[in-house]
């Protein structure tokens, strides 16, 4: 009965406070998201990925760095090595499990850097207008003129190989789309009546941008971030494949594919297993992004 009462309280059409309205909106959004089977599958895969990364020392059957040259290139299903071993006899399953940590590390850092930079540039450009808008958007156009992976390769070549530099390079190439989205949202919001009312009350540009424009841009950016995660993972894997990302013996999935490409015909599992891991996680982020778009799209109910 108490549970039913709480549900009714959350689903009411007449919230009694701002907090009540926010909780009601969150719950209704969750119900809408939960009804999307594919989005729930994507969320489940990502939750499993986080759990595997967090419990890697407990789940990993072997040390991912220990070599056993006497058992190199063992096939799938070998006793003690479910996914086989690589060219140095290291357990592929263990390296995949620890590689999940690197993937989440890259995704988290890029998701913290690129959208924030894009939001700042886009909202300032859209609200200020004039020469500020022209300068910031031309800089954005320069970044958009180059393919993301090519530009990331250039940054990594200048900064040096390594996972931190790879994250920085991917972030520097990922922010322009967010800036475009934030600017478009800001141009629409800037001409709203309530913004004019806030200006008449004496609110400054900084307060208007941070308190009244940013919150309205967040939902669009969240959807874009989740849909971009697949591209970010592939870019990180591409840098690792080329030897410019995480350095050996780090169990990064792209580097594992690079190592396994030499044996792709006779020992296909060495490159296929990390490739399937990248495919699965990328698909999960796309499914999650599609589900969030259906929930957060303000036109969905029209």
TrEMBL record:
An example Gene Ontology CC term for this record: plasma membrane
Compartments (UniProt record): Cell membrane
Keyword Cell membrane assigned: yes
InterPro entries found in the cross-reference section: ABC_transport_permease (IPR053385), BP-dependent_transpt_permease (IPR050366), MetI-like (IPR000515), MetI-like_sf (IPR035906), OppC_N (IPR025966)
Keyword line: Cell membrane, Membrane, Peptide transport, Protein transport, Transmembrane, Transmembrane helix, Transport
Domain of life: Bacteria
A UniProt-annotated Pfam family: BPD_transp_1
Residue stretches making up the ABC transmembrane type-1 domain: 100-289
Residue intervals passing through the bilayer: 38-59, 102-129, 149-175, 221-247, 267-289
Primary localisation category: membrane
GO BP annotation list: protein transport
Membrane-topology annotation of the record: Multi-pass membrane protein
Phosphoprotein as UniProt keyword: no
GO MF terms held by the record: dipeptide transmembrane transporter activity
Family stated for the protein in its record: Belongs to the binding-protein-dependent transport system permease family. OppBC subfamily.
NCBIfam families for the chain: Opp2C (NF045474)
Name the record gives this protein: Peptide/nickel transport system permease protein
Species the sequence originates in: Lentibacter algarum
Biological classification of the source: Bacteria, Pseudomonadati, Pseudomonadota, Alphaproteobacteria, Rhodobacterales
